[in-house]
Write the structure tokens for this entry.
Amino acid sequence: MPRMSAAEKQKSHERILEAAARLMRERGIEATSVADVMQAAGLTHGGFYKHFPSKRALVAEAFRHAAEALLGEAEAAPGGPARAEARARYVARYLSGQHMRDAGHGCPIAALGADLARDEGAARSEATRALERMAAILGPDTPGKDDSGLALTALLVGTVTLARLAEKPDLSARILEAGRRAADMLDRCSQKGA
């Protein structure tokens, strides 16, 4: 059997991360098995340990992968008006019905935060870093000036979590709209204090 090239191994690794990040956000960490991830990636279960030493290592790396995909664009925006526009786009996408319905491609903090709050390993550390990155994106251009970025992060994560929890679509829609109004008020208060 021929050996896999480094490029092929990297492609397989990326497929595993994509599958794991999606499945864990959709189902939760405990309900997602290594076999499920490998099947979704189109690979055999036996190949998992060529990429990761454990499921816990996969969880941490998949979380980082998902966070990078969602935060990277907003972080890359320069300061000033471009940053404000990137922040506004981020908030609008975050509080959208699409994000609420598609946990598998959404924010890993909203999808996995409760699971990882009980974890003491690398995945929780990745979640903490993502939380800090998100707060920095949503906060003022001058870091450390206030905690409005943390407040907006809490509002966004809480809004999406509650909207997903609601069984009635009209209640979910009302929760998202309330979150949008609260985010706008918080942003206006933050701008006045700047």
